[in-house]
Design brief:
Blueprint: H1 17-24, H2 32-44, H3 48-68, E1 73-77, H4 87-94, E2 99-104, H5 107-111, H6 113-116, E3 124-129, H7 135-140, H8 142-147, E4 155-159, H9 169-178, E5 186-192, H10 198-210, H11 220-224, E6 230-232, E7 238-239, E8 270-277
Parallel strand pairs: 1-2, 1-4, 2-3, 4-5
Antiparallel strand pairs: 5-8, 6-8, 7-8
Helix pairs in contact: 1-2, 2-10, 3-4
Length: 278
C-alpha cells in the first residue's frame, strides 16, 4: 500500500468498487479504469446513479434512527471515499458523543482518511486500513479496540459491501464480526439482489467481473441468512428505497391529489435491513 518513500500506491490501473461508487455519486476521486468499468455497469443498469444515491440515503436514515434510539458506537466497513454526509456526521448530528470507526481496503480512501476524522469535540472518529475478509484483524486493531467498547451496543454498518465477497465465506466473516458485540448491537446492510430484475442485476454482476471485481447478487433468502438469530427491525428486509423513505416515524397518509403521477421508478436493485442482536 505504501512504497519505500512513504507514498500511497493508489493502484490507478485497476478498477476499484469504492472509486466506481464515487464516480456514480458524482465524485472526482476516480481514474480511467474506474470510469471504463462504470460505463459498462451503467449499460446494464441505467439507474445505477440513483441506486448509489439510494444506498447513501438509506445509510443516513438507518444511522439517524439508531443514534436517535441511543446507539453511540458505529463500525462502518467498506466506508468508501468521503462523501457528505459521512456516517459520523449523521450520527454526531443527533449524538455529538458518537464514536465511529471506518474500515476500507482502498488506498485512495486511506489518502482521504483525514476528512473522515473531523468530527465533534465530544465524539471520536478513527480509520483502519483493512479488508472485510480479515475480520479478526479488524477486531484486533488498536483503533477499533481503543475507540469502541464491545460491552455496549455497536452498530455494524455494511452498505453495498457483502455482494463483493462471493460464496458462503461471507456469512462466517459477518458472524465473526458480530460475535464479540454486545447484546443490543445492530447489523445495518444493503445488498444487491436478482429478485426484482434478474436481467439487469446479472448484467451488473458480469460488468463488475469483467473489470476484475468479484461480485455475487443474493436472493432474499441469501440476505436473510446474515440476520439469523437476530430480530430484524420493521419494515423488515425490503427494497432499499422502501426502508422508511420518510424516516422511521410513519408519515401521514398522502392526499390523493398529491401523489406522484410521473414515470414509474426503475426496479429495485437491492435489499436493505437492520437487525438487532439478541
Amino acid at each position: 500500500m505504501v512504497d519505500r518513500n512513504g507514498s500511497v500506491d493508489l493502484k490507478q490501473d485497476r478498477a476499484h468498487s469504492a472509486r466506481i461508487y464515487d464516480y456514480f455519486l458524482g465524485g472526482k476521486d476516480n481514474y480511467p479504469a474506474d470510469r471504463e468499468a462504470a460505463a459498462q455497469i451503467e449499460l446494464a443498469i441505467p439507474s445505477v446513479r440513483a441506486v448509489a444515491r439510494g444506498n447513501r440515503a438509506f445509510m443516513a436514515r438507518a444511522v439517524r434512527h439508531l443514534s436517535g434510539s441511543g446507539v453511540r458506537q458505529f463500525l462502518d466497513i467498506g466506508t468508501g471515499i468521503p462523501t457528505e454526509p459521512n456516517l459520523h456526521q449523521v450520527a454526531q448530528e443527533s449524538a455529538p458523543d458518537a464514536r465511529v470507526v471506518y474500515v476500507d481496503n482502498d488506498p485512495i480512501v486511506l489518502a482521504h482518511a483525514r476528512a473522515l476524522l473531523v468530527g465533534t469535540p465530544e465524539g471520536v472518529t478513527q480509520y483502519v486500513q483493512a479488508d472485510v475478509t480479515e475480520p479478526d484483524r479488524i477486531l484486533a486493531d488498536p483503533a477499533v479496540r481503543d475507540t469502541l467498547d464491545f460491552g455496549n451496543p455497536v452498530a455494524l454498518s455494511l452498505i453495498a459491501l457483502c455482494h463483493f465477497v462471493p460464496g458462503d465465506r461471507i456469512y462466517e466473516i459477518i458472524d465473526t464480526l458480530l460475535a464479540p458485540l454486545a447484546s443490543g448491537s445492530f447489523l445495518v446492510m444493503t445488498h444487491l439482489t436478482t429478485d426484482f430484475d434478474p436481467v439487469m442485476v446479472e448484467g451488473t454482476v458480469q460488468a463488475y467481473r469483467q473489470s476484475g471485481i468479484e461480485m455475487e447478487a443474493r436472493t432474499r433468502e441469501g440476505v436473510s441468512r446474515f440476520f439469523h438469530g437476530m430480530d430484524v427491525l420493521e419494515p423488515g428486509i425490503v427494497a432499499i428505497d422502501s426502508w422508511y423513505p420518510e424516516g422511521a416515524e410513519a408519515p401521514p397518509a398522502p392526499n390523493v391529489t398529491q401523489l406522484d403521477t410521473g414515470a414509474p421508478k426503475p426496479p429495485a436493485a437491492g435489499y436493505a435491513a437492520v437487525g438487532r442482536k439478541r
